[in-house]
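Dear colleagues,

I hope this message finds you well. In preparation for our joint manuscript, I am sending the Dihydrolipoyl dehydrogenase (Tessaracoccus flavus) sequence together with its predicted structure, so that both groups work from identical material. I would be grateful if you could confirm receipt.
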Amino acid sequence: MSDAYDLAILGAGSAGYACALRAATLGLSVVMIDEAEVGGTCLHRGCIPTKAWLHAAKVRRTVSKAPSFGIGAELGDTDAEAIRAYADGVVSGLHRGLTGLLKSRGVTVVAARGSLEVSDAGPAIRTPDALHRASAVLVATGAAPATLGFDIDGERILTSNHALRLSTLPETAIVLGGGVIGVEFASLWADLGVSVTLLEATDRLLPGEEPGHVRVLRRELERRGVDIRLGAPATSAEATDGGVRVSAGSDSVSAELLLIAAGRRPVTSGIGLEEAGVTLSPSGHVVVDGNLQTAARNVYAAGDLVPGPQLAHRGYAHGIFVAERIAHNLGRHPRKPTPVRDVDIPRVVYSSPQLASVGVTLEAAGAGADSVDYHLTGNGRAQILRAPGERESGVVRMVRAADGRIVGLHAVGEDVSELIAEGALLVGWHATPEDVAGIIHPHPTLSEALAEANWALAGQPLHIHG
Ligand SMILES: Cc1cc2nc3c(=O)[nH]c(=O)nc-3n(C[C@H](O)[C@H](O)[C@H](O)COP(=O)(O)OP(=O)(O)OC[C@H]3O[C@@H](n4cnc5c(N)ncnc54)[C@H](O)[C@@H]3O)c2cc1C
Ligand SMILES: NC(=O)c1ccc[n+]([C@@H]2O[C@H](COP(=O)([O-])OP(=O)(O)OC[C@H]3O[C@@H](n4cnc5c(N)ncnc54)[C@H](O)[C@@H]3O)[C@@H](O)[C@H]2O)c1
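The corresponding structure tokens are as follows:
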């Protein structure tokens, strides 16, 4: 039997739909199967709604500071239902756009639960009503919140899925986990007037990020009232009359609700992967080679179920890579695509202040590496954004390896997420500070921090004290 499609995709999240769009552009026939709406976690339960909630929280914070800028304003009540409606509006607009785009590119979208099947005829995705055969299959079923075995009721004990659906905010909340989700929710809830206790099992927030920058973020969260308890592994949670009580070491903490933000586990069981010859790691991730090829012939995996950072833009990059790889193998794309390197992928924590980074820290950059710190107290734009009386402006650190290449950029401060795309260019293009010292940055922008760091590393500092 001849293949019905060139490519069949299981999961229409960031990785799956990016693969579908790119493959269709390259002339491949594509079927994409998802049991939920196209767009996946990022669009419906992740990046987009959390950033809308964070933006609403920023509006409230800005209004509360308005008098320091000479603008009279009084804070009214916070209407969580209205914030949710605003976030839903953003999501549904983007969802409509994505649905239209997939249709216009000719991608066949099937709304059904699917599983992988591999036979002598090749790979296929089975749905209740059909078998979708293809020359190649991409599995991109993503990840779901770790629940730690706690009894999630969606009212007192929540995951981020539930937290984004709240129509009233609690007065008190416990956030379990000091990773990205925990820190973003602690930040936004604190700005919306919730009294937050954050429990983190290890001795630091956000492992992997510049320790000094994490300290700046921590001080700022504490200044806004977040009670941060490190070395506090939560072991149990029980519902009480007033909400929930959590045990963490010798501590017991009570609040109206508990958000569990303790990582996300790959969605890889019960969908025929191992039966089809795909190897899973002990953590349940799909084992792939450098080309995102699984142990099963012509079956690829992409996105959160592949070990590494769980980020939407990594999913896009994976999806695009797989589409081009398959098209190349089918003779429809002239060149072999370049595999995605996790180290080149920028990361942003959208809390207040933000943390943004790409590449490696100074500690990880190896012998002979050096770095420069540019403090945003010297940056005009950062000073304009800062309300009078606020203490910390933030800092940008640029890291250079012994061979002269820029291998890391790390920043903490208001709106520093806007810097990191340039950081990704510098790191991804293996630029040296000398290469880019002549590139002119507009004044007054936060981006001048990068020019200052380049100049300093190239031995010609301007506003940095030598
Ligand atoms: C609260 C939160 C905030 C986040 N914020 C950011 C952010 O700001 N920036 C960022 O880069 N990343 C963020 N992320 C991470 C980002 O959402 C994920 O990295 C991204 O969605 C992963 O894409 P994916 O395609 O691998 O999986 P997903 O987006 O999870 O898509 C998987 C799809 O597979 C479908 N599926 C699963 N099993 C089956 C089956 N058997 N049959 C049919 N369909 C199936 C699911 O319905 C889903 O639509 C956030 C995540 C969360 C939870
Ligand atoms: N801005 C963004 O890019 C963004 C935003 C949200 C989520 N995400 C992605 O979603 C993924 C999941 O985020 P996350 O924050 O849930 O996971 P995470 O792995 O980043 O952090 C989980 C934290 O929970 C802690 N923890 C685990 N068990 C605990 C316990 N019993 N008690 C106390 N602490 C405990 C861990 O030590 C860890 O610090 C991340 O990998 C991230 O890439 C990205």
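For the figure legend, we might mention the following. The radius of gyration is 24 Å. The longest strand covers residues 130-139.

With kind regards,
E.M.
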